[in-house]
Amino acid sequence: MSGTFLLDGVAVPFVAGQSVLQAALAAGRYIPHLCYHPEFRPHGSCKLCTATVQGRLVASCTTPATADLVVQSNTDELREIRRTLVQMLFAEGNHFCPSCEKSGNCQLQALGSDLGVTTAGFRHYFPDRPVDASHPGAWIDFNRCVLCELCVRASAEVDGKNVFAISGRGLTKHLIVNAPSGRLGDTDFEVTDKAMGVCPVGAILPKRVGFAVPIGSRRFDLRPISAQALDDAPRPGGRPDV
Amino acid sequence: MQDTADHEARLSHALGRWGAEGHRLLQLLHAVQTPSGYLAQDALQDLAQRLDLPLAHVRGVASFYSFLSTEPVGEFRVLFSDSITDRMEGSAELLDRMCRRLWVEPGRVSDDGLVSIGTTSCTGLCDQGPALLVNGRAIPRLDAARVDRICELILGREPVSRWPEQLFVIDDVIQRSDVLLRQQFPPGEALAAARRLAPAEVIAAVTRAGLRGRGGAGFPTGAKWAACAATAGPERYIVCNADEGEPGTFKDRVLLSRHADLVIEGMTIAAYAVGATRGLLYLRGEYLFLRDAIEAALERRRGAGLLGEWAPVPFDVELHLGAGAYVCGEESALLESLEGRRGIPRNRPPYPVTHGYRNRPTVVNNVETLCAVALIMLGGAAAYRSVGTQESAGTKLLSVAGDCARRGVYEFPFGVTVRQVLQAAGAGDAIAVQVGGPSGTCISVDEFDRTVCFEDLATGGAFTVFDRRRDMFEVARNYTHFFAHESCGFCTPCRVGTSMLARVVDKIHDGHGSRHELAELDQLIAALGKGAHCGLGHTAMNPVRDTLLRFAPAYERRLASTDFAPAFDLDAALAPARRMTGRDDPAAHLGDAS
Amino acid sequence: MSDALRPKIRLATTSLAGCFGCHMSFLDIDERLFPLVELVEFDRSPLTDIKHCGACDIGLIEGGVCNAENVHVLREFRANCKVLIALGACAITGGLPAQRNHLDLGLCLQEVYLTEPSLARGGIPNDPELPLPLDKVYPLHEIVRIDYYIPGCPPSADTIWKVLTDLLAGHTPHLSERLIRYD
């Protein structure tokens, strides 16, 4: 089954099984998102892709595309919600961009500049979170984790390893490592794992690699995320250009 | 240590009872934990191994629930209910008293590993508070004498199972009965009436009767059943949502205590109607004291041929215990919990009626809804529909507590006014009523002629009264902290937003508030209301939003400045440096900005 | 009133717990400084060496708040500047100095001044002229109301120029994606 739905007044084609977000991206129409990755089932946690569908506010990544939909994705109200969500993420963790190896290639950072976020606005939490450098080839800075759970899913579904899981509830929710010691070095994690490459921010990083590309030439220096996310979206019948 | 040696015995027994399957994980964790709720690392490892699950996954599930702990909690874990009504009755002072008597700070384990004392969300004993849980067992009607007795028993290391029974007596107080509570329900009669109809006719009757869910959401029951019945599949499930976690709600507690048989009968009728053969009753962990009686009721019905795979309606029910997570009252989070996972609400669609328990078509109904089903079978759909309002048929059980002379369960037809309920409960001095708990609406005196029904003031049953002694800002603050504690953490707006809401309200409470905070509250209210993943997030800002609207002076008189002030005492922020340098000169201090 | 007689916008700047990198970046406006000083008079600033703020239209502050003296200066700026702008990562998030926030200040001072063998004489400096550090390093907006934010470490001269010229022209400052960087 396929058809079209209206996105901001313009028709967008879809095929059965696609979400509103997937159909929009494939048609070259950007809706901001963070926890969505084209190779994984939608997660629905970051809420950055919130859009108005039939007058109701929903996550567009978990809303199935159907032929009768009327979707607004770029109203003032939605932009305000997205800015607030990015601000919440910046205030919740310790996101010190100037010294972060992911800077310039970080989706949270790129979303911030694209949405016009100039401050976290809220009071910073300054949480005390550890850094895990126990693995010979990779390290984890939990201060930067945005709880998208892509590493959890990638490790379980692609690598077949279950290296990561989620623990705690509410604001104490955090990523944990599947080892009695809780340390990455005590798992069978490898730098070549899908879970390594899938982290959208600077939480899981390879060791001994950093700042190799000068400021001004990094991924999101060249083009904003609103343009680049469209490159990643699978075109109907095609593979995503990663 | 004694705990770890015992866990192997508990684990073997638990696996024998539940089976070594991943979806049993929560019940297995219950069984393996120490009496005080501690799950040691090796207990988790053994369990993970036996279930062939990653250790981190098991740890992740254990860490989600308030009553399970992966850190030691002492031989006795005491949790005081921190609901607003308990606070109004002095629970904070009683907690303090116990801490002093037992030489332990709140939230910490005593040095000798004997006891830890903390707080927990509303335990559903609002009509007989203040209440606490000790190793999972509820003790209501706390006063200084009871607290002292409990301290003696703890110091004497007396196992809770040997404590005097009279400490644990829970009263069921029904103040007003109406069509449901007055009805006689001989076991099996309502079911027999249902079986005289075809299953589709039963669904049609429930639809004609206009029955809507009694848990708070009010979804039309007939439509839910029809959608489940229409979904093809070899197995369908009936789940009874007995997770009654909304603060101020205790009507399901009373129904399960006095009418467990009726609830099971309702489940069986539902099973007949939709073609289900298996049922699950999810009982909130705080109602542990009801478990044995419900199991006995199930056994009685099996013995009477009213339940079981060989009964005329082949259907049996398994009782599952929750473990302290309000979000598991949300039907899809409840299903996740039943499947042995963290209670995270699912992405919808699909909905439970098509993809529910273990992906099978499932009906999730509230306790009271199932009782009403039986009433409709016995009395007929027309009689049921003739009571209530245009859009809200039948009666509603209200759990009335707070500042009133007669607390307890009141059954009223939908359409009753708040004023009528207040009069019946002896609450002449009320200034505010929280209808539907913190996720409902807070109304003030000007609105007491409004009606209890889905089209006006919807409620799952909670009806909490506040008189002129109460500070409505503090009420909102208590409720706001509740949501921050109970947020499942999945989505950004609720995980961070509920915490920020609590911080901002605390800043105002601490005397550092300004107009800036009121604006920030508005921003958070918008983000939560518009972006949240489930009902918890969508309603978490209700208490602040409603009290800001109706009790603005309670906020305004607390504002310290008109413009902006830091959230903390700047002079206190210099204290560590003063201490390390030994300085106390004027330059070592900071005063107010003005 | 002709341009020559119109009173100039008074602009004050300072660095609190900052490295002055944002001030250096500001000076990267290069020759645009000439048209700027036609419109703007610098009040308290490292560029003028005026010690205290008078009544100003705009205050630009880099660096977060790490000690008591920072609080005094920040309050002076807030009291005297109609519009106060947080300039750069440290002012907006606490920045590099705020990386000490997860550590206990007392333990830090102890480690540096008492445990470290490299200092000739131990002892935590306690001269009354030294400003005492706060328990944490705070972003500016957690101490006083801030009106606008210019992110970057440092913000580029173009970014700073855009905000200033917007304000001078009477627009609410707007930064496009290209001008918003956090590093």
Please characterize this protein's 3D structure.
The complex is a heterotrimer of chains A (242), B (594) and C (183). With 242 residues, chain A is an alpha+beta fold. Chain A folds into two domains: 2-74, Ubiquitin-like (UB roll), CATH 3.10.20.740; 97-221, Alpha-Beta Plaits (2-Layer Sandwich). Chain A contains seven helices and ten strands. In chain A, a hairpin with a 5-residue loop joins strand 6 and strand 7 (138-141). Chain B has 26 helices and 14 strands. In chain B, strands 5-11-10-14-12-13 form a six-stranded mixed β-sheet. Chain B folds into five domains: 2-62; 76-168, Glutaredoxin (3-Layer(aba) Sandwich); 175-385, 3-Layer(aba) Sandwich (Rossmann fold); 396-468, Ubiquitin-like (UB roll), CATH 3.10.20.600; 473-556, NADH-ubiquinone oxidoreductase 51kDa subunit, iron-sulphur binding domain (de novo design (two linked rop proteins)). In chain B, helix 9 (189-195) packs parallel to helix 13. With 594 residues, chain B is of the alpha/beta class. Chain C has 183 residues and is of the alpha/beta class. Chain C has one domain (9-99, 135-179): Rossmann fold (3-Layer(aba) Sandwich). Chain C has helices at 21-27, 33-39, 68-80, 89-93, 105-115, 157-168; strands at 9-15, 40-42, 56-62, 65-67, 81-87, 133-138, 148-150. In chain C, strands 2-1-3-5-7 form a five-stranded parallel β-sheet, sandwiched between helices. In chain C, strands 4-6 form a two-stranded antiparallel ribbon. The mean pLDDT of chain C is 93. Chains in contact: A-B, A-C, B-C. At the B-C interface, helix 26 of B face helix 3, helix 5 and strand 6 of C.
